[in-house]
Design brief:
heterodimer, A: mainly beta, 4-stranded antiparallel sheet, about 55% strand, B: mainly beta, 6-stranded mixed sheet, 11 strands, about 60% strand
Chain lengths: ~110, ~110
């Protein structure tokens, strides 16, 4: 079974721009969660989608948004990028959300 | 105070040593996860447990729900075990993970 894939793996953007990251879950998994990892804050939960609906949201500003498609693939979008958004963005898929989570390799975003 | 606390923050061991990493949490949980992260960022889920003990190869994870405490043990440690080990809890009634700060483990040969 193919693992969780994320694209792109690396991204450099300029402050003020917007970015879209993509996550393809393991086949059959219906839950996709997104996490941000920074040296200062560690790993933090962004949001979770299940069957195209956002079920949970972390404490991030509205510039961070996401969606899930009918094939369970998910995208997250960050608008009006700030320097502090530089981070590793990880997605994880799970059968139902409260089962074991399988992580993708992450997208490393650098904002200059 | 963070909801999930790990100790130690850093750990250096000699190859072959028995290693213990601890995790304490302050909220009611439905499950606790132990994760491993190697340089480069990829995260691997080692264990998900809600009670008792699990073993996989040289790794053992235990949890005491009453004391809100979990431990990850590595027997006969090896340099390839060098990584960051992260404890994360799934709050009761929720579907989001809350993470500890991680333990940086270095095993020297």
């Amino acid at each position: 079974k193919a693992g969780v894939t994320q694209t792109p793996r690396y991204l450099i953007k300029t402050r003020g721009q917007q970015v879209t990251l993509s996550c393809s879950p393991i086949s059959g998994h219906r839950s996709v969660s997104w996490y941000q990892q920074t040296p200062g804050q560690g790993l933090q939960f962004l949001f979770e989608y299940f069957s195209e609906t956002q079920r949970n949201k972390g404490n991030f500003p509205g510039r961070f948004s996401g969606r899930q498609f009918s094939n369970s693939r998910s995208e997250m979008n960050v608008s009006t990028l700030e320097l502090g958004d530089s981070a590793l963005y990880l997605c994880a898929s799970s059968l139902m959300g409260y089962y074991e989570q399988y992580f993708g390799p992450g997208t490393r975003l650098t904002v200059t | 105070k963070n909801e999930v606390e790990q100790s130690p923050q850093n750990l250096t061991a000699q190859e072959g040593e028995f290693i213990t990493i601890n995790c304490s949490y302050s909220v009611g949980i439905s499950a606790l996860h132990w994760l491993q992260q190697h340089p480069g960022g990829g995260i691997v889920s080692l264990f998900m447990l809600s009670s008792g003990k699990k073993k996989h190869g040289r790794l053992i994870a235990t949890i005491n729900i009453q004391e809100k405490h979990s431990s990850l043990h590595i027997t006969a440690s090896h340099p390839r075990d060098s990584a960051v080990y992260i404890c994360a809890v799934m709050r009761q009634g929720g579907n989001k993970l809350v993470f500890g700060a991680g333990t940086i483990l270095r095993v020297k040969s």
